[in-house]
UniProtKB/TrEMBL annotation:
InterPro entries assigned: PCMT, SAM-dependent_MTases_sf
Family: Belongs to the methyltransferase superfamily. L-isoaspartyl/D-aspartyl protein methyltransferase family.
PROSITE patterns per UniProt: PCMT (PS01279)
Enzyme class: transferase
GO biological process, one term: methylation
Protein name: Protein-L-isoaspartate O-methyltransferase
Database matches in NCBIfam families: pimt, PRK00312.1
GO MF annotation list: protein-L-isoaspartate (D-aspartate) O-methyltransferase activity
Pfam family, one: PCMT
Organism: Kaistella gelatinilytica
Cellular localisation: Cytoplasm
EC number: 2.1.1.77
Keywords: Cytoplasm, Methyltransferase, S-adenosyl-L-methionine, Transferase
Amino acid sequence: MQDSFVHKGKRKILVEYLREKMGISDENVLKAINEVPRHLFLESIFEDFAYEDRAFPILAKQTISHPSTVAEQTELLELQEKEKVLEIGTGSGYQTAVLIAMNAWVYTVERQKDLHDFSQKKLRELHLRPKFQSFGDGFAGLPTFAPFDKILVTCGAEILPTELLHQLKVGGMMVIPLGKTDEQVLTRFTKKSEKEFEKEEFGAYKFVPMLNNTNH
């Protein structure tokens, strides 16, 4: 698949939808979504629908999130250029690509080997380079590279993975969907000190579950 004028036109329509209907106001987020060819992260049978606000199945019984969810989660990070971002759940690599397009230094972890391999290949093809891409357990994070300015968890956690909070620098933020399998609340933690966190909630969503360990 190529990135044609038709695809680019559909992306512009998607960005206007995110701005006007979904209230996304961070122009850096919108610019990144306008740049990243989402259809290339999907199976070709979904290509015609890639710029609709829909989730789609990907490898390993996972999903690629709605563009509006990607935009909302990313906007909540309040991301600045060259901040170190830990992403838990690389998935197909689409969210990773959006973060890289925003000039973040991205460190990303995926527990599904099929998805790790797919996203690594796809990002390489598009000349999008994370600082570090790992096949591993998201609950463990990447302590070697900590602390991080921002942490983004792209899967729903029933319990708060406190190890990730330890890897956040003071002043940093973590955005994570928290709650039971059928529905989570999108939550942002801001690290005020080593032991103090501010917690904010931003509505109900449905994400694939965050699981321990790795799956070959």
